[in-house]
Structure formats: structure tokens, C-alpha cells
Design goal:
Blueprint lengths: L2 H17 L7 E4 L2 E9 L5 H6 L8 E12 L2 E5 L2 E9 L4 E4 L2 E5 L2 E9 L4 E11 L6 E9 L3
Antiparallel strand pairs: 1-2, 2-3, 3-4, 3-8, 5-6, 5-9, 7-8, 9-10
Length: 149
Amino acid sequence: MPAIKTFNLVAFLAACLFAGVVFAERYESFGDYQIHYNAFTTDLIDPSVARAHNITRSKNRALINVAVLRRTAGVPLQPVRATVTVEAVNLNAQLRAIEIRELNDRGAIYYIGEFPVGYNETLNFKLEVTPEGVGKTHNFTFKQEFYAG
């Protein structure tokens, strides 16, 4: 895979997680860990990046992005591997299990999953995150409305 395409994906996903300009920064803290997450329609992803990572671009498809970071005194936050499980339920109580896959590049670790969305659909997400080497799972929920067209 060309380095520039990988860099573009990492830059895009990092911007989604940390910039807070286009997407509000969202994260949960537990113990020494921060779990950053976001969900957005895939039409926002650059076409070459989507091709390079087998992501379907569409206003009717969304992507959830999760990164797990560990805090250590005197050291910047460090990405860690984790087991990530995601389910979503719409307002009609229709359940969607979202298959999550790991993207690993130059020390950055992201967990992404794609799923279909309808016009003005609101989804309630349930996440279960277990950092590698930690016996405790952190569970949390969030709600997101998608303005698919």
C-alpha cells in the first residue's frame, strides 16, 4: 500500500478524533485509558483513502472510529490494542451488529466499522472496549444522528 495513502487515512482519522473542528471530540476515560470515538458518513472520506482501505463511500453508509490510548506519567498518550465490540439500535429498535476491524499504521491503532444509515436516522451505540492485557471491559453508550441523503 502506498505510504501517502496510509498517511492520508491516519491524518483523516486523527483529525476526526482529535481536531474537534469538523467533529466534536468525544472520549471516555477509565483508569489509565482514554477511548476516543466518532461516527460519520463515509462520503466525507477522501476517495483514494477509501479505496486503499476498502471503505465504501456513500451518504447512506457510516463509519465508526475508535482509538484506545493509555496514560502513563511523563509520557504522551500511547495507542494500545484492544478488543472492541459495537452494536447500534435505531429508534425503531432495529439492532445492527457492526463488524469492527483494526487498522494499524506507524504506531497508530484504530478500530473501524461500516454500516448502512437512513435519512435522518438516529442510532444509539453500545460499545464494549477491553484494552489488551487488562481484565476489565469498559462499557458505554452514545447517540448520533446521521443526515444521510
